[in-house]
C-alpha cells in the first residue's frame, strides 16, 4: 500500500535509535539532523530518496536494506 515503505523505514530507524538507548533529540543531533525532521521520518511522513536512505545507513553502519525491509522483531 502507499506509504508502507516510508513507515517501514521509520519503524526500523526508530528501532535502531531505541536499541542505542537514545532519545530523538540526541540521536538526531548525532546524525546531524533536526529532531523534528527525524521524528517525521520515524512517523513515516517523509518520502526519502534512496540517496538519503544510503546516507542514513552509512551513519548507522548498517546495510541500506536493513532500513527498507520490514523487521520480524516486531
Would you give an account of this structure?
The chain is an all-alpha fold and 74 residues long. The protein has one domain: lambda repressor-like DNA-binding domains (434 Repressor (Amino-terminal Domain), Orthogonal Bundle), CATH 1.10.260.40. 65% of the residues lie in helices and 0% in strands. It has five helices and no strands. The longest helix is centred in the first third of the chain and has 16 residues, at 4-19. The relative contact order is 0.21.
Topology:
Layout: H1 4-19, H2 24-31, H3 35-42, H4 50-60, H5 64-68
Helix pairs in contact: 2-3
- State the separation between the terminal residues, measured CA to CA: 19 Å
pLDDT averaged over residues: 94
Shape: globular
* Count, helices: 5
Number of strands: 0
Considering the chains and any ligands shown, give keywords for the structure:
74 residues, mainly alpha, 5 helices, 434 Repressor (Amino-terminal Domain), globular
Quick recap:
With 74 residues, the protein is an all-alpha fold.
